[in-house]
Amino acid sequence: MNQNAVHTLAAEQLSLAHGKTVISEGLDLTLPTSKVTAIVGPNGCGKSTLLNGLARIHKPSAGSVLLNGRDIHTLPTRTVAQRLALLPQDNTAPEGLTVSDLIRFGRQPHQGWLSAWNHDDQQAFETAVTAGDLEDLLDRPLDTLSGGQRQRAWIAMAVAQQTPLLLLDEPTSALDLGHQIEVFELIRTLSGQGKTIAMVVHDLASASRYADHMIAMKGGRVLREGSPRQVVTPELVRDLYGIHCDLIEDPATGSPLLVNVRRAH
Amino acid sequence: MTRTALFSNRRTVIANTVLLLAMLTVVLASLAMGTLHIPPDQVVHALLGQGDPLTRMVVHDLRLQRSIAGLASGAALAVAGCVMQSLARNRLATPGIIGIDNAATAFAVASVVGTGIALAPSTMALVGAATATALAFGLAGANGTRGYRFIIAGLGIGAIAGAITQLMLSQVAIDDANAAYPWTVGSLNSRDRTSILILSAGLLTGYLCLQALARSLNALQFSDPVAVALGIRLRTLRVIGLSLSVLLTGCAVAVCGPVGLIALIAPELARTVCRPGRMPITASALAGATLMLAADTIGRTLFSPLEVPVGVITAILGSPYLLWILLRPANRSMR
User: Fold this and answer.
1) Are A24 and A16 in contact, with CB atoms under 8 Å apart?
2) What pLDDT score does A82 carry?
3) b/e sequence B180-216, b meaning 16+ C-beta within 10 Å
4) ipTM for the complex?
5) What is the pLDDT of residues A35-46, one digit of tens each?
6) Which one in A46, A216, B197, B243 has a CA-CA gap of 20 to 30 Å to B213?
7) Which chain B residues touch A if contact means CB-CB below 8 Å?
8) What pLDDT does B116 receive?
9) Which of B216, B221, B230 sits opposite A94 (nearest CB)?
């Protein structure tokens, strides 16, 4: 598959529902190519549902998700898996599975019925191992790793899939600060290699720091969309989370920082 | 291939070799032991068509067919269990527990006691197995094979099928009830040649199909979103996997009746000895064949000339092992 071709992922009048409960209605958005997009918003605002919708895990109740202009649900799921990788929130692995075995699963969409592990698979595997900085951990079972190492291994599996599009659902949840930075920097590196990435992130500061594009959601609707500087304002923070704050510029990176955070009255 | 992969593959190869040797030992023992004891070397001679006519007759005509029946039914039950556990991602989801065995038995008994059904008992067993699975699948609703609804629906169906079997047996003449008895306890005593042939064909088909699907089936160990993201067609794969395990269970029950615990214990044993993260189809088959034939040989010889049905032996020997598996602290089989 041509890695250099431009691949686009967009939602068109997308409505998502859990059973009869409507989560989102009529969403229109396009992920900017080769950029990191952060989807932010309070708990239950529909950001994970949107991500799962974009990844064809959650079927839309109306509208469609377009992969390269074609409805994602009309494409064979294997073909989609060659273009789009997903790191979901629930990523439990079979016990005893090693890092190396996990990363190998990333080659699944590229392997034929009975075809053996080939040169391309090996190359993709090695690239993924390097990207995740996992050379020394290959033989380790996942359950013996730290949270950050485990998350790197899962991202490496998605990298081994060699897709131009990568979706991540809260890739840094339950990680301490050091491990969060580790994961975010890996995401930046991947984006630098030309991948189009969308991630659901809880922390507004990290989202501003590491994303090029931001989608702020509340109640299933997109409140605002644009670069972090355009999107993150005291008004938005109040609308999203019901808190007051002031904003200053990070002296080192220029990204917006929330200070003097307090409850709205 | 990295060194890691080679190493872990070696673990599976070693495990399968050991299981194969264990199976061959049990085969030899099953042919040697009985009312007439035949030394192992004579068994081998007889198998090669040499030795005295009496030994040849005992080995070929009396014991060999029973050993084949035991091997094939044990392997089929174990593979069916292994697949179903993986599909449901639950170690309790084996054909015996979700009522497939019981339903197959009920249908077979119905045919034996003559309720006006024309099909042979073994065909009826297969029909029963398919009916029970379809019902459990239907009652489980949107969740399919995932989650407890499938298991609970299956338990209910199994209980109803068991009750129907008892009811039928209590309503018919004693001779009919006697004829149907082997179907209700699980025994290799009542096997007939056609059923064994059907079972062997079913086992071969099921095993080859599962090997072809192995790579996709392995990915089912992850959560649904991960499997879909890897390009797995979940629904199709589940329907195929479930159909294959119904085929295997139905064919096996047609030969040996509802032998409990093999489908639960053999895959468990296979998972313990094989490389983690793979569905151990071959190892399950070998372990199931070995356990079934060993249990039958014990049942046949322990109180000789009285015979204890193999289903009783697997229950007595299997339960403690099952408890040990469930209670041991490091619970490392499915997840």
Assistant:
1) yes
2) 94
3) bbbbbbbbbbbbeeebbebbbebbeebbeebeebebb
4) 0.88
5) 999 999 999 899
6) B197
7) 1-2, 4-5, 7-8, 212, 215-216, 218-219, 221-226, 228-233, 276-277, 332-335
8) 55
9) B221
Q: Are strands A62-67 and A70-71 parallel, antiparallel or unpaired?
A: antiparallel
Alpha carbons B22 and B18: distance in angstroms, whole number: 6
Contact B58, B41 (CB under 8 A): no
Tell me which chain A residues have a C-beta less than 8 angstroms from the C-beta of B335: 92-95
CA torsion through residues A206, A142, A162, A80, sign: negative
Interface A–B counts its CB contacts (< 8 A) at 100
Which residues make Cβ contacts (< 8 Å) with residue B306, sequence separation at least 6? none
Residues 6+ apart with CB under 8 A from B173: none
Please tell me if residue A55 touches chain B, with a CB cutoff of 8 Å.
yes
Summarised one tens digit per residue, pLDDT across range A89-104 is 877 888 888 999 999 9
Least confident span in A29-43, A85-99, A185-199: A85-99
Q: Does A98 contact B221 at a Cβ distance shorter than 8 Å?
A: no
Q: What is the pLDDT of residue B4?
A: 43
Q: Does domain B3-327 have CATH number 3.40.228.10?
A: no
Q: Is A42 on the interface with B (CB under 8 A)?
A: no
Which residue positions in chain B have pLDDT lower than 50?
A: 1-7, 331-335
Q: Which chain B residues are within 8 Å of A79, Cβ to Cβ?
A: 231
Nearest by CB to A85, from B1, B229, B276: name it.
B229
Q: What is the DSSP string of B41-66?
A: HHHHHHHTT-S-HHHHIIIIIIIIHH
pTM beyond cutoff 0.90: no
Whole-number Å distance between alpha carbons of A130 and A207: 25
- What pLDDT is attached to residue B226? 92
Using CA coordinates, name the residue in chain A closest to B224.
A57
In chain B, residues with a C-beta closer than 8 Å to the C-beta of A165 are none
Nearest CA in chain A to B220: A94
Q: Quote the minimal CA–CA distance from B215 to chain A in Å.
A: 8
Residues of chain B by 3-state class (helix, strand, coil), percent to 5: 75, 0, 25
d(CA B115, CA B159): 21
pLDDT reported for residue B330: 52
Break chain B into its structural domains and give their ranges. Answer: 3-327
Q: Measured in whole angstroms, how far is the alpha carbon of residue A98 from the centre of its chain?
A: 23
CA B105 to the chain's CA centroid:
14
Read off the tokens for B253. Answer: 């029950």
Query: What pLDDT is recorded for position A265?
Result: 67
Which of A52, A92, A127, A151 is the best mutation test for B, with the most CBs of B within 10 A? Answer: A92
